[in-house]
């Protein structure tokens, strides 16, 4: 194995996720549950204030970074929690703040790329995927959800999730998923992750991943890995999404042809579309904010979940919700595509807009200058 491959294998992959949604839908609780499933390389990193004590209302956005290991790969995972949105006159301002955060990360990349001497160790701050929490008590998307989703999808890969799915019966869950799918895809044609603008274009989410040619781990997020490696979607099945720690060498896993990759990506995206929006449940906390101890009476195993008079919810059980599938999609199967699309589509679009705006303002200034000179001449 050459030194280059070795360095790729040991490289730390950056992955940045964000949660957004109306207030009280369980965003912070989801992050806490998600963090409990991580295999952290530095345990003390779990001592993050936001993860301690009883869960409370999020007032300001904050982020936390973990060095984790997932399927043998080292990932620097950053999760950004945002204050809950409110369905009132404040919504536009709150949404502006979220968009500003996303754009600011693009500005950092833009500034780095404009340098004559770039920092090869510059971090990739861009948000690669944003989970949008949807109220399970509604019959589908609200007008505010639609407004927020339309804006968010101009800047980031958005993955809709139905919050607090333990509050839904199976038939309610199926019908809310169907209604949300209809609202997003058919009614409003909102371009969430996995839904191409033109549905006859099979490649809109996979092409970006397919065309790249180097590592996805460095250099202000410019993805350079072939779309054929570990991060190419391999499955959306439930087992694959359970935390696994085998040290598979993905750097050698790209023997397939590009066509096969594209076909496989499409298969997985088709499967993903059938699951989306993901239903999630977070574990129950005691008054100190610690996970309630729950023991599965059938197996005697301890699990993270919620206990009801009629039974137990295991957040990682695919029969109970899609938490484990979503976890696998984020950390493993679709991670590379999220990163590629973020850079190839969202960043490039932002960059183009910025450059056009600069050019326009320059032209405008020239115009104004010329007019002033003309006016002076006429005096
Ligand atoms: N039944 C149920 N309750 C949940 C679930 N997740 C969170 N909760 C509860 O919902 C309440 C709000 O949870 P948070 O995690 O603070 O919600 P949030 O979206 O971060 O709230 P904001 O900070 O206001 O945006 C808490 O009482 C949680 O215990 C869930 O999956 N099921």
In short:
Residues 255-264 have a biased composition (Acidic residues). This protein has helices at 3-10, 27-36, 91-114, 143-152, 170-187, 207-211, 258-275, 323-333, 335-378; strands spanning 13-21, 62-70, 73-81, 129-134, 158-162, 278-279, 294-295, 302-303, 305-308, 311-314.
Keywords summarizing the entry:
379 residues; alpha/beta; Rossmann fold; two-stranded antiparallel sheet; 9 helices; 10 strands; binds guanosine-5'-triphosphate
First CA to last CA: what distance?
Answer: 77 Å
Shape, principal axes of CA atoms: globular
Number of helices: 9
Beta-sheet strand percentage?
5-15%
- Give me the count of strands: 10
Small molecules in complex: guanosine-5'-triphosphate
Instruction: Spell out the CATH superfamily.
Output: P-loop containing nucleotide triphosphate hydrolases
Poorly predicted segments: 1-7, 201-257
CATH architecture: 3-Layer(aba) Sandwich
Largest sheet geometry = 6 strands, mixed
Query: Overall pLDDT, averaged?
Result: 79
Helical coverage, percent range: 25-40%
Name the strands of the widest sheet in spatial order.
2-3-1-4-5-6
Radius of gyration: 22 Å
State the name of the first-level CATH class: Alpha Beta
């Amino acid at each position: 194995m050459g030194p280059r491959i070795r360095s790729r294998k040991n490289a730390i992959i950056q992955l940045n996720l964000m949660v957004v949604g109306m207030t009280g839908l369980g965003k912070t609780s989801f992050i806490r549950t998600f963090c409990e499933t991580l295999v952290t390389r530095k345990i003390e990193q779990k001592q993050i204030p936001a993860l301690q004590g009883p869960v409370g209302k999020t007032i300001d956005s904050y982020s936390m970074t973990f060095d984790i290991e997932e399927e043998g790969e080292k990932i620097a995972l950053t999760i950004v929690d945002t204050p809950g949105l409110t369905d009132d006159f404040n919504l536009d301002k709150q949404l502006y703040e979220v968009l500003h955060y996303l754009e600011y990360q693009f500005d950092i990349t833009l500034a780095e790329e404009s340098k004559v001497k770039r920092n090869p160790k510059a971090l990739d701050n861009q948000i690669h995927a944003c989970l949008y929490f949807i109220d399970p008590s509604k019959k589908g998307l609200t007008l505010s959800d639609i407004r927020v989703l339309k804006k968010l999808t101009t800047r980031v890969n958005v993955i809709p999730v139905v919050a607090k799915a333990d509050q839904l019966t199976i038939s309610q869950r199926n019908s809310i998923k169907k209604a949300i799918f209809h609202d997003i895809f058919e009614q409003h044609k909102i371009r969430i992750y996995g839904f191409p603008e033109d549905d006859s274009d099979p490649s809109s989410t996979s092409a970006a991943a397919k065309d790249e040619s180097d590592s996805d781990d460095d250099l202000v997020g410019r993805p350079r890995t072939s779309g054929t490696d570990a991060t190419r979607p391999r499955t959306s099945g439930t087992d694959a999404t359970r935390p696994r720690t085998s040290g598979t060498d993905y750097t050698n896993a790209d023997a397939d042809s590009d066509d096969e990759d594209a076909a496989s990506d499409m298969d997985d995206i088709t499967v993903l579309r059938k699951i989306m929006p993901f239903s999630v449940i977070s574990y129950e906390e005691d008054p100190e904010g610690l996970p309630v101890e729950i023991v599965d009476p059938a197996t005697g195993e301890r699990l993270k979940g919620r206990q009801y008079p009629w039974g137990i919810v295991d957040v990682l059980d695919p029969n109970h919700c899609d938490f484990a599938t979503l976890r696998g999609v984020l950390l493993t199967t679709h991670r590379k595509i999220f990163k590629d699309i973020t850079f190839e589509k969202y960043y490039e679009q932002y960059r183009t807009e910025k450059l056009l705006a600069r050019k326009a303002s320059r032209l405008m200034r020239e115009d104004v200058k010329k007019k002033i000179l003309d006016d002076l001449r006429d005096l």
